[in-house]
């Protein structure tokens, strides 16, 4: 097919469209999105991980054009940015359905696989499960999630042949594979279009039977124009009671020291990313939701590869033993119990281990990402956070007021003032957290005065900074 | 790990073990199976597509050793062979659960993915669905199938590194990937064990997080000792009323002429394989359940590649546009509606389109294979068969007496005497079959006298042999 305009010509008003791509990366089907914006189709139902980076040829263009009537997404809002989509949702012009990442790709994959529904542990105890069937299997609760099929999928690939066989590059498979399977018409834009036969059978990531049309990429997001997503320099410490607490870097260092060698770990966006600096020279295996396992450290400017980034959008490197796959496989790893730990940032943690990290009062939806799937499946849930919020209120609370990510799941809290732990889940309620360590320069009573949840105090409370010596 | 004996040392009595491998191929984890036979573990629950070729180091060795207490499989019996497993099942020494191929890999994959259950269309209306929850979604019936997890999986691969990353070769992924995901301990035997880093990230078919142990292959099935599975020479025609009907080759030729260019088609084992000879030079895309799409014709002795075979065990070639994947993806294609047609052999077809092709009176279980998944998902279900059985009884019957594969699904019947069709499924009951063509030399009344179902007769009944001229 000659052009993107021809390829999307039959996307009519009211169509459902899956738009693959991941987070704030620059790898979106920008050519097809631009053509769809040009065509001006309205009343679209759009399925996506997120609309992408505002101000670039991502799903945001369609929102700014008022082309989206219903948005099904894992990220509708980020702190500090109010997008055009949020304004339209707030005004009632666009409706919103929030879906956990693993659930979204699994529902898409199920639709493509001819299944009607799945029972997943993800989302139980959160508002995501409200109104859905809950059923217990072997004593554990699962949520019935319906399969999704769409009219169209927009896919970005590295290489495609005329039969429709597709190859992705690096960690860029993400939602592309499952979205392609779910669609009646799958439209692929590719950097290279090659003769059928030029792709070896074992190199095909998406067999041609799932692909309807292939067009060349003509619109690209220039990586140099994106907000730089590189490892932050060590931050200065926040102060409590006039005294410096741990820096963000030191929080990461303390959390890293909790990870045994050979553990498989997922690091959430934000503060948990700091952990990566302290495990890069250790045999700790990092996992990213967009489809990387056992990747290396953060890329320097010289090493930067546009198709190698983690789920938070940080550019990374490969190392011996790295593998690439799509987000369906990535969440198999997560929900299937293969992760030793997930380390998540959070808004609030409850005394009973409740985790609230995806939405806050005043947000239009929020940013679920993979947190609900990761928390549901990982053997351990660690959370790294500042002990109090910017207005000085404790983030460790008796009972979370923010929407829950998952009830009763956290087993370690690492803040800039303290380490608190409790036994990991195993059927029985693990009970209260125990204050095990505090930041140098603080007393137990001082830390407790800044803590909003009831905790036990260890017989011997150690100093956090000594844990990694 | 040094040896297979060490790798399987903790498979204790009563363990559940998934044994990957496909059909009558020679690619089974024979090294690990042999070690397990040597160890003599008893009371095993074994999950497999089938036990493999009797008389070779396949699952049959474990049956012959009386090590299996419960067998969960897609193939428990084949016509003309009575295996040791069948004898033990018949004697009540071993229990049996029959599972459709697509359902088995999907249940395994669901177990590995941390899901509890799925709703699949496969098996509805057959005895496979008996006692299971049935639920209608959008007016269509689905069967609730529980996820499976196992204690162990035995996997055969081409290459593995010390991190556990695995590469399969050709069309040999089949059940390996899903079985590895479902197991608590996955043991891989590989032809080559390489340093971590020697496998490129994009070449990894099964990420190391799913793999627990890797051992070298020391026991192989020699392909030369297997019963030769090559394309049969044209057979002589069967006679009815003293007159020759179509040969098997001609049945295949007639069926092939029903397939439009660029259609994606799955050919069942046995008679449907004949169709392949007539489409190899046409743009018809062949699909095989073990994980090949758009493969070429049958391999000659010179072309024979041990890792390239179709689901019936026939050795095939690749061609421009071929792709390889695992059986999970293969059944996504089937159930997801991507096949224009599946062509299946059958024991009986009912007047209402019922298909009975997996079990017959006197069989211990039967051979479901992928038929239920394929029939549930394909846009068209064609069946090729001899018009009457070896004792002269019509195979086209008013109502099937044999266990159903799927009710009301067949839309074309191609026999050695006739072509009968009816509108394809689409919500409404398509009604009776119409006799459209008959074999040269026969009259309509003669064909009807050999037909056990009520049919309509076309105004103009044509001659089958003229259809491909």
Structure summary:
Two copies of one chain form a homodimer. The first copy, chain A, has eleven helices and 26 strands. With 469 residues, the first copy, chain A, is of the alpha/beta class.
Number of strands of chain A: 26
Compute the average pLDDT of chain A.
94
Euclidean distance between termini CA atoms of chain A: 62 Å
| Portion in helices of chain A | 10-25%
Quaternary assembly: homodimer
- Number of distinct helices of chain A: 11
**What portion of residues of chain A belong to β-strands?**
25-35%
Can you list the strand order of the major beta sheet of chain A?
A: 17-16-15-14-18-21-23-24-25-26
Shape of chain A: globular
The greatest interface between two protein chains, and residues involved on each side, is: A-B, 62 and 62 residues
Describe this structure in words.
The structure is a homodimer of 469-residue chains. Chain A is of the alpha/beta class and 469 residues long. The first copy, chain A, has eleven helices and 26 strands. Chain A has helices spanning 4-7, 30-39, 59-64, 84-90, 101-112, 176-182, 248-256, 276-279, 327-335, 371-377, 444-449; strands at residues 16-19, 44-50, 68-75, 95-98, 117-120, 134-137, 140-146, 150-161, 166-167, 183-194, 213-216, 239-240, 243-244, 264-267, 285-288, 292-293, 323-324, 341-344, 348-350, 355-356, 380-385, 396-397, 412-415, 418-421, 434-438, 456-463. In chain A, the strands form five sheets. The first copy, chain A, has a ten-stranded mixed sheet, sandwiched between helices. In chain A, helix 5 crosses helix 6 and helix 9 (327-335) packs parallel to helix 10. Chain A is globular and about 70 Å long. The mean pLDDT of chain A is 94. Chains A and B meet through helix 5, strand 5, strand 7, strand 16 and strand 17 of A and helix 5, strand 5, strand 7, strand 16 and strand 17 of B. Strand 5 (117-120) of chain A pairs antiparallel with strand 5 (117-120) of chain B.
């Amino acid at each position: 097919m000659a052009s993107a305009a021809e390829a999307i010509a039959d996307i009519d008003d009211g169509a459902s469209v899956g738009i693959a791509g991941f987070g704030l990366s620059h790898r979106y089907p920008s050519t097809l999105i631009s053509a769809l914006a040009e065509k001006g189709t309205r009343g679209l139902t759009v399925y996506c991980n997120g609309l992408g980076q505002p101000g670039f040829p991502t799903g945001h263009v369609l929102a700014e054009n008022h082309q989206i009537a219903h948005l099904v997404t894992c990220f509708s809002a980020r702190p500090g940015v109010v997008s055009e989509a949020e304004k339209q949702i707030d005004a009632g012009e666009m409706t919103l359905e929030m879906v956990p990442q693993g659930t979204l790709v699994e529902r898409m994959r199920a639709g493509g696989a001819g299944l009607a529904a799945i029972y997943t542990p993800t989302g139980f105890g959160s508002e995501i499960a409200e109104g859905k069937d809950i059923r217990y299997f072997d004593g554990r609760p699962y949520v019935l999630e319906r399969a999704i099929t769409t009219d169209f999928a927009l896919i970005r690939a590295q290489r495609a042949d005329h039969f429709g066989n597709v190859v992705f590059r690096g960690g860029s498979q993400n939602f592309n594979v499952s979205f392609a399977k779910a669609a009646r018409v799958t439209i692929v834009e590719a950097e290279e279009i090659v003769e059928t036969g030029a792709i070896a059978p074992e190199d095909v990531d998406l067999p041609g039977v799932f692909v309807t049309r292939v067009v060349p990429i003509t619109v690209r997001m220039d990586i140099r124009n994106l907000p730089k997503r590189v490892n932050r320099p060590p931050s200065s410490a926040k102060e409590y009671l006039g005294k410096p607490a741990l820096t963000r870097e030191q929080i990461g260092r303390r959390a890293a020291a909790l990870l045994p060698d050979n553990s498989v770990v997922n690091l959430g966006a934000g503060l948990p990313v700091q952990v990566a600096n302290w495990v890069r020279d250790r045999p700790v295996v990092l996992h990213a939701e967009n489809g990387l396992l056992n990747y290396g450290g953060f890329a320097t400017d010289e090493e930067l590869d546009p198709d190698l980034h983690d789920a938070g959008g940080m550019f990374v490197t490969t190392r011996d033993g790295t593998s690439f796959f799509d987000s369906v496989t990535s969440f198999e790893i997560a929900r299937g119990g293969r992760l030793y730990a997930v380390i998540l940032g959070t808004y609030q943690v409850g005394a009973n281990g409740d985790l609230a990290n995806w939405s806050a009062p005043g947000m239009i939806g929020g940013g679920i990402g993979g947190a609900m799937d990761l928390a549901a499946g990982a053997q351990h849930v660690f959370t790294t956070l500042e002990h109090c919020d910017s207005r000085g209120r404790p983030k460790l609370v008796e009972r979370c007021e923010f929407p829950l990510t998952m009830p009763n799941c956290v087993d370690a809290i690492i803040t800039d003032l303290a380490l608190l732990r409790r036994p990991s889940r195993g059927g029985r309620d693990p009970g209260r957290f125990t204050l095990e360590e505090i930041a140098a320069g603080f007393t137990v009573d001082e830390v407790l005065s800044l803590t909003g949840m009831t905790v036990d105090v260890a017989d011997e409370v150690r100093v956090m900074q000594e844990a990694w010596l």
